[in-house]
Amino acid sequence: MNDITCKVLVLGGGPGGYVAGIRAGQLGLDTVLIEGQKLGGCCLNVGCIPSKAFIHAANEVDKVNHFANGSALGIKVSNPEFTLSKTVEWKDGIVSRLNTGVAGLLKKNKVKIIEGWGEMQDGKTCLVKTDDGEVLIRAEHVILATGSISTALPNLPFGDKIVSSSDILSLNEVPAKLAVIGGGYIGLELGIAMRKMGSDVTIVEATPSILPQYDKSLTKPVMKRMDELGMTVMLNAVADGLNNKGDLTILDKEGKKQVIKADKILVTVGRSPRTEGWGIENLALDLDGRFLKIDDQCSTSMKSVWAIGDVTGEPMLAHRAMAQGEMVAEIIAGHNRRWDKRAIPAICFTDPEVVSVGLSETQAKEQGHEIMKAEFPFMANGRAMTQEDETGFVRIIARKDNHLILGVEAVGGEVSELSAEFALAIEMGATLEDIAGTIHAHPTKSEAVLESGLRALGQALHI
């Protein structure tokens, strides 16, 4: 058995883990990173990146089909064809390039990568089973970055026709009929994409609305678009299981059983922290519900044991994990850091896209703020018009007394690319006057941010 001693041990090579490793290496810390599957974790391999590749491909298919019927642009194509297996091949190529890139960055910063499944023996020791035998690693500091897994339903276990969000990204054929259990962002992103690729899609959501974490004014355009695409959405409906013919049975809002025929059933009812299989039973870690409990430095209940990313709770987002990983590496190196982020962007890559950064109107009022708000619609934005994409708006929420921006929300085509401006404004403590006084390039969709700020001040120019 090989023995390794290091300053920092990172368990998990997902977005949080590999960023922690890179930053620790940059700071001159002797660092070892353990990954049992592929570098990049769920996000890079079977989540964020491949799903966005699928969404892009689906949008291109939708565009070509639109042109097949002629368009106002004067473009018309004939007999468009689509082969999902080619899309999967292209997607896998992107994932491979990014895998290689992450490995290169870690090696560049002198991080030792151990490929194998690690199991913590105590708060400073990890036993790793590799293809070449066992490796015992002793570290002064341990960063737990074990991530999360798709949540399964007891009455619809994964296998055969029941697939997870990871599984569906590797299909070689578009299912003729697809049932999606869960109307959250994962289910809708993939459901809309598969509909554009040719599936007959039914969404089954247990609550009264899709995307329940977002304001209804943001989700209304998404609902309208799904209706235009010919998707079926069943609200207040609960998946019951499979009948003896292998068809999905659900209970509708009246408690009546209905049958949905589907070639594939995509279960997207959330994700669960990966708290099993890596030796948590050998550690004295406090839990916060089903997550590892951490403080504002991502420190756990054990000295020199840190935890970051999905295993520590909501929001389970790659960009949160990355920021935590960077911070923990700097704390270990002696820097004075604490988690003081004012906003973490939440994005739903549906059609249209939905973005929420900071406080919603409801949240701001619940916190006791007297607010002012304003919206600017994309139908009054020149760039949106030239892209044939006038759906949606940008909304700014600010304090009434000092005009401090509390939240920014948007729905529309490619509004995810505006999320950085939203987050920057909140993080830097910008006011409505700061937004109004900043020149926004013309013609761009970002002008809707400027105009919403001006409108809140009673100074709107283009509406």
Give a structural overview.
The protein has helices spanning 15-26, 41-46, 48-68, 84-108, 185-197, 216-228, 318-332, 361-366, 382-386, 419-427, 432-436, 447-456; strands at 2-11, 31-35, 112-115, 117-122, 125-130, 133-144, 148-150, 162-163, 177-181, 200-204, 232-234, 238-242, 248-251, 257-260, 264-267, 271-273, 287-288, 291-292, 305-307, 346-348, 353-358, 371-377, 393-399, 405-412. A hairpin with a 5-residue loop joins strand 23 and strand 24. It folds into three domains: 2-55 and 84-150 and 272-332, FAD/NAD(P)-binding domain (3-Layer(bba) Sandwich), CATH 3.50.50.60; 162-269, FAD/NAD(P)-binding domain, CATH 3.50.50.60; 346-456, Enolase-like, domain 1 (2-Layer Sandwich). With 463 residues, it is α/β, with parallel strands linked by helices. The protein is 30% helix and 26% strand. 41% of the residues are buried. The strands form six sheets. Strands 1, 2, 3, 4, 5, 6 and 19 form a seven-stranded mixed β-sheet that branches. A five-stranded parallel β-sheet has the order 8-15-9-10-11, with helices on one face. A five-stranded antiparallel β-sheet has the order 20-21-24-23-22, sandwiched between helices. It is globular and about 70 Å long. The longest helix is centred in the first third of the chain and has 25 residues, at 84-108.
